[in-house]
Amino acid sequence: MTKDVIALTERMPDATSVLAGLLAGGPDLRVETTGEGAVIQLCDAEGRPLVSIEAPLMLQVPGEADRLLGPGAAPAGEGPAWWIEARATTGVPEAERLAGAFAARLTMLLGGRVWPPDAPGTTGAARPVDVSGITAVPVPAAAQPAVDMLTDQAAIVLQDRPVVPMTSWLSEVLRATVESDRALQIVTPPHCRLSLATRQLLQSTPSRWVVQDERGGYYDGLTGAVLRWQDGAFVPDRGEDGETPVADAFAEPARTAGTARTEERQLVVSFRTHHRPEADLVLGGALEAAWRALTGGPPAGWGTAEPAGLAWSRRQLTDLAYRRAPEPTWTMAVGTPDRPALATLRVERTPDGVEEDITLTLGYGPGERPPLDALPALAGELVTGYGLKTMVCQVREARRDLTAPPRFERLPVPYAFALGAEGVREAGHDRAARPPLPEAPLRLGPESGPGFFYALGDGESDEGWGALETLIRHLRGA
Predict the structure, then answer these.
(1) d(CA 39, CA 7)
(2) Which residues of 429-450 are buried (b: 16+ CB within 10 A; e: fewer)?
């Protein structure tokens, strides 16, 4: 199924090397551009794209290639690598060989590696791929380069890679589908996983992860619902009783494991901050403070898509948000290979300032423990210095590498909740200070405008859900 080929080069691609790669199909193919020049396309005689090639991305963040493509994907050199992604048109075998030959030629000239290493066309790449008489199917006018099928209801994207990242390709498709009232549906084999960023964005939009069941049929990789194709989209397959069954492939691993629990954990810290609209405001401070409190250092890198190619910079992040204002800005930050961590950050202008909506997730393996003791001090720092509104801390029994497999995973368990000064004023100080919980809350920040930190449970048992519901109802006066 895979139609993506990636060249990871040791040196920056220049005009000569890119031209040599483009000649992989001989001199007769047409070259077009799309996406305001950001995407180069090799096209057949009718101008229909065979291969779409995205602009090179410099990877300044160690471990990003291995995180998304698997161990050993990155070039052996110590310096930064360049990521050049080529996507071949579905249903044209010669197009996939053409993409492989393009990537192989780049790495021959610039050093580096091709992913996947056994991609068609990488052997004998010095000879042009014979594409004579080959044509691609017509592409609908509204289709993006990453879309394999476009209907009135959905944009279908086929993927087959170890981890499906939220690349700039997918990010653009997601934006276009939302604007056109369509759904993005990503179709993968059962061995694929989603990156955390892809999972979060799919869950926040009318999108779906469609997994091909090895036993036949399809199911939703996040819910397990059995799916069928109907009227141009994958939809839940409801039985005569109106209920949708759960695929065995999704539920069976949990059933066979019985009461066995994995030792891998994720700590999920979600918080929202508010800032006054000051001219010298620099964003990202709350995220960096949380990262330092929980890992001992700042994020390693950031970007607007995966892979995250830029070294961490609050100033650059702020400049991007200001350029996009008043539209909201979505970015992500990543950690180092020794401590898996990923955060999504959404910056939005409001009538009375700027809000940052952040979800930071960290992974821990057997023998590692999430630093839960650091959370009260972190909440206090966010209240005092970064205008914290609310913070929810949860512990999840899930993979250390933060990827999502297409099978059942237990829900996260609430561990703690923090309320900033604004929320305390809205709820009333006395009400916020005396919740119906076993433990008294911890006061945060100054006496003149305090916040509170509430312990909800041990992060393992489901009692945290009941405590959180009780607390929220109490704060709202219910």
Answers:
(1) 15
(2) eeebeebebeeebbbbbeeeeb
- For 190-226, b/e burial (b = at least 16 CB within 10 A) is bebbbbbbbbbbbeeeebbbbbbbeeeebbbbbbbbb
Q: Which of 63-72, 255-264, 371-380 has the lowest mean pLDDT?
A: 255-264
386 Cβ partners below 8 Å, 6+ apart? 273, 275, 285, 286, 289
Residue 120 CA to residue 98 CA, distance in Å, equals 8
| Distance separating alpha carbons of residues 104 and 116, to the nearest angstrom | 11
Rounded Cα gap, residues 29 and 51, in angstroms: 11
Contacts of 439 (CB under 8 A, 6+ apart): 454, 455
Q: In angstroms, rounded to a whole number, what is the distance separating the alpha carbons of residues 290 and 381? A: 9
Output the CA torsion sign for 55, 58, 63, 66. positive
Render pLDDT for 303-349 as a digit per residue (tens, 0 to 9): 999 999 999 999 999 999 999 999 999 999 999 988 999 999 999 99
The answer to whether residues 271 and 277 touch, using CB atoms and an 8 Å cutoff, is no
What pTM does this model have? 0.91
Q: Fill in the DSSP letter of residue 245.
A: P
413-467: per-residue pLDDT in tens?
999 999 999 999 999 999 999 999 999 999 999 988 999 999 999 998 889 999 9
Q: From CA 12, how far away is CA 14, in angstroms rounded?
A: 6
- How many residues are there in the chain? 478
